[in-house]
Write a structure and sequence with these properties.
The chain is α+β, with helices and mostly antiparallel strands and 322 residues long. The protein is built from 13 helices and four strands. Helix 3 packs across helix 7 and helix 9 runs antiparallel to helix 10. Bound molecules: heme C (2 copies).
């Protein structure tokens, strides 16, 4: 891996949570077994990239930052709950987590509130339906999960580039988000970046090997000048800003350059980002500001509010051979 790529990884830590999924796959409601399997597979795959990094199904996981999903199911599900109600409540919470909506005050206490992430609503419905239908605490489900993990590498070849790139970006984002959340809670925002960057490099390295891809984040207002967008990337960031102003849906973009596939995905701000990218003395406390100024004397990455375009993920993939 080149030095340039390594440096751009240092940025990833904070990125995490905000990538909009923009997944517009539609699943039709055929009832035959084959399409049910496809739907289940899709739901499990979405859950594995978007939820399990934090809601890890392995109980012995040492780095737990959220309750395992079967615990959540236990709280939201009983014999009286209808499928529709169950889905509605899970989706409502995940779209916009708040203490008012939480029915698990112990979890909020232990782990802090789940950070708001721009998940795709259709994806969440599929995930919630899957959780309703599958007893995630059973051995039967756990064997399915193990099989899924084994098959996963083979099946990724069926995805198109936009989906593949999104999986790569989402996995990176969720893993980094998990770490950022944990370290902010433990040490406060001023120390968070160093810690995250030590995890970001091994993680993204291993993905580069497995998936043959590279991931970086770039922006038009850089904290680290190494993350400044090039001309092509800047043009796409401007397009996203216009789309946001108009209230249009933010869509990713996939292009081919010199025989490589490049996929771009928007990175939006949420409240958590403002601890380090918001307004000094308001959302950024002086200790954090001092740490930032010290490391990045030419920092341009402040002054953001929530739900603005902070930059983009760029995923570079090799072309598949047909
Ligand atoms: C970055 C970590 C993270 C990711 C990713 C994440 N969650 Fe959470 N989630 C948490 C934490 C922490 C809690 C416990 C605190 C709370 O309840 O807010 C939680 C709690 C929940 C709850 C219980 C809410 C309550 O308190 O009643 C639901 C439902 C939930 N998550 C759904 C999801 C779904 C669905 C996904 C994937 C689409 C997901 N989460 C992805 C961190 C995460
Ligand atoms: C704990 C402080 C902190 C938090 C919270 C934080 N960031 Fe950052 N962010 C940084 C630092 C420090 C850098 C520069 C890292 C480097 O040197 O590569 C950075 C860099 C970035 C970059 C790369 C472009 C650049 O300016 O160098 C993006 C994009 C970004 N952050 C987005 C976000 C988003 C979106 C959130 C909220 C989910 C967020 N950050 C939360 C500290 C933070």
């Amino acid at each position: 891996m080149s030095m340039k790529f390594k440096n751009s990884l240092l940025v990833l830590p904070a990125a995490l949570l905000l990538l909009s999924c923009g997944n517009n796959a539609t699943i039709d409601e055929k009832s035959d077994d084959a399409s049910k399997d496809v739907k289940e597979e899709k739901a499990l795959s979405l859950m594995s990239t978007n939820c399990f990094v934090c809601h890890n199904p392995d109980m012995e996981s040492e780095t737990r930052v959220a309750p395992p999903m079967f615990k959540i199911r236990e709280h939201y599900y009983d014999d009286e709950t209808s499928r529709d109600e169950f889905i509605k409540e899970i989706v409502a919470f995940a779209m916009d987590p708040s203490e008012a909506k939480s029915i698990m005050p112990g979890a909020v206490n232990n782990f802090g509130l789940m950070p708001k992430t721009p998940f795709n609503e259709e994806d969440l419905k599929l995930i919630a339906g899957y959780i309703f239908e599958n007893d995630l605490a059973s051995d039967k489900w756990y064997s399915k999960w193990e099989k899924f993990q084994k098959d996963k590498d083979n099946s990724s070849s069926d995805l198109n580039y936009e989906e593949l790139g999104r999986n790569i970006a989402n996995q990176t984002k969720a893993e980094l988000g998990k770490n950022l959340m944990a370290v902010i809670k433990r040490d406060g925002p001023a120390k968070a970046v160093d810690f995250c960057s030590t995890r970001a490099i091994p993680l993204t390295d291993s993905m580069s090997v497995v998936l043959n891809a590279k991931v970086k984040r770039v922006t038009d207002k850089a904290r680290n000048p190494k993350n400044l967008a090039n001309q092509e990337e800047s043009a796409f960031i401007q397009e996203l800003k216009v789309a946001l102003l108009k209230g249009d849906k933010l869509k990713p973009k996939v292009t081919e350059v010199n025989g490589k596939i490049l996929a771009y995905y928007p990175i939006e701000t949420n409240d958590m980002c403002l601890k380090c990218h918001g307004t000094p003395n308001k959302t950024i406390v002086p200790a954090t500001m001092a740490a930032i100024k010290n490391k990045y004397p030419n920092d341009k990455a402040i002054g953001y509010k929530s739900n603005e375009i902070r930059g983009i993920f760029v995923v570079e993939m090799n072309k598949k051979r047909n």
